[in-house]
Specification:
- The chain is an all-alpha fold.
- The chain has one domain.
- The protein contains 16 helices and no strands.
- α1 runs antiparallel to α4.
Length: about 400
């Protein structure tokens, strides 16, 4: 039976749905475990380098720099901001008063934080009171984003600049905690990514945000005293993440305000190029390193530029060229982004185990044992998509 491919609503920006679906697809595609394939493929195989490239793009860089996988969280945060102008306009058109909109925004913020904590606590002996996951980070800044949605764009830019300058000063004025040993930082003395000079203020787990977490997180119930985050992530990342969301808010406002498709595309593209160039320059001159794990001001500029450019590309294809039908598989995922996020964190072992239980433990080794992880992942990813398609066809969406 054929599946009807609905077109986006006439006044809906198809690029937003397509981009959101693309981001969620990249996150769900973690089930492909490309890193395991890259390790298992023999060095003598001609496609070894191909799998290594894919594996690199599906992993986070150890500290400074960027891969495709590193752009998932900023894209998700950016798109939250993009949606706000449309959401506020819709609520205003329905006659909803500000107080009720504010209550809903506050409720959404709380739920996002709690849901993030819940997902990070799955499989743990007790509640994992940390706030470095994507949902919690968005939730911690969402209400402020909502309030900024009622301001003019110039004040939104003022907020971005204030956050970036203030957060830079917060780190720059905190002496690196170099006296801390590996037991309090998790960083070996010969770790190759530590820097010197001004950039040392953003070194892993010796920076201002890490010091804050050693104080703050130990005020909350923990299975053991908190010393460091093994990945270097920090609770205070939500502050510059808010700047990323505000950039999305600005992009969404321009999509609503500007007239024709050409103006919208070139505006998004030009803004993306400017932010990207500024981020590269700030990193190159040594003013601040480009580190996603602690969401440095440079990362806000660099990743924000990438988000503008990706959105402009989707807009050119789906809206300006009016060719949106191809994005239907992505829109199926993007329409239920919160549910897709939860699926990625909760049901992979169940789905994978069910396949092997009922079809045989070796069912995914048809192309050879080195490729078993990716073949298994394709089956799991297809299952995810079919579940989301079933919900999409019945207009069942998880909303917060």
């Amino acid at each position: 039976m054929s599946v009807p491919i609905p077109r986006p609503a006439p006044n809906r920006v198809a690029a937003i749905d397509a981009y959101r679906g693309f981001v969620m697809f990249l996150m769900l595609a973690e089930v492909l475990h490309l890193g395991a394939v890259a390790k298992a493929v023999p060095a003598t195989d001609s496609d070894k380098a191909f799998w290594q490239f894919l594996a690199h793009q599906q992993s986070h860089v150890e500290w400074a720099g960027c891969t495709l996988h590193d752009l998932i969280q900023p894209s998700f945060s950016f798109l939250v901001g993009v949606a706000v102008p449309f959401s506020l306009a819709s609520r205003a058109a329905r006659g909803q008063k500000f107080v009720w909109s504010a209550f809903h925004a506050l409720w959404r913020a709380v739920i996002l934080v709690v849901l993030g904590v819940f997902l990070r606590s799955v499989g743990q002996p007790q509640t994992n009171w940390t706030f470095t996951d994507t949902l919690s980070q968005i939730g911690l800044g969402y209400f402020f984003l909502f309030l900024l949605g009622y301001t003019a764009e110039k004040w939104q830019w003022v907020a971005v600049v204030a956050i970036l300058v203030g957060y830079w000063a917060f780190f720059a004025n905190h002496p690196p905690d170099t006296q801390l040993g590996i037991e309090l930082t998790g960083v070996k003395p010969d770790w190759p990514h530590d820097t010197t000079g001004l950039e040392a203020h953003w070194n892993k787990n010796t920076n201002a945000a890490a010091a804050f977490d050693r104080w703050f997180l130990n005020k909350l119930p923990q299975a053991k005293p908190f010393a460091y985050n093994s990945g270097g992530y920090a609770t205070l990342n939500f502050i510059p993440t808010l700047a990323t969301m505000i950039l999305g808010l600005i992009a969404g406002g321009r999509l609503r305000r500007l007239g024709d498709h050409q103006a919208k595309f070139w505006n998004l593209f030009g803004m993306g190029m400017c932010l990207l160039a500024l981020g590269v320059i700030v990193n190159a001159v040594g003013l601040c390193p480009n580190v996603k794990r602690i969401w440095t001001p440079t990362w806000v500029l660099f990743s924000g530029g990438c988000c503008f450019l990706i959105l402009s590309a989707f807009y050119m294809i789906t809206d300006w060229s009016a060719w949106a039908a191809w994005s239907f598989p992505l829109r199926v995922i993007g329409a239920n982004s919160i549910l897709a996020y939860c699926m990625a964190h909760l049901i992979e072992p169940f789905v994978m185990g069910s396949f092997k239980t009922h079809l045989g433990a070796d069912v995914f080794q048809a192309f050879g044992k080195p490729y078993e992880p990716v073949v298994t992942g394709i089956a799991v990813l297809t299952t995810y998509w079919l579940i989301l398609l079933w919900l999409y066809q019945r207009r069942i969406f998880a909303r917060i």
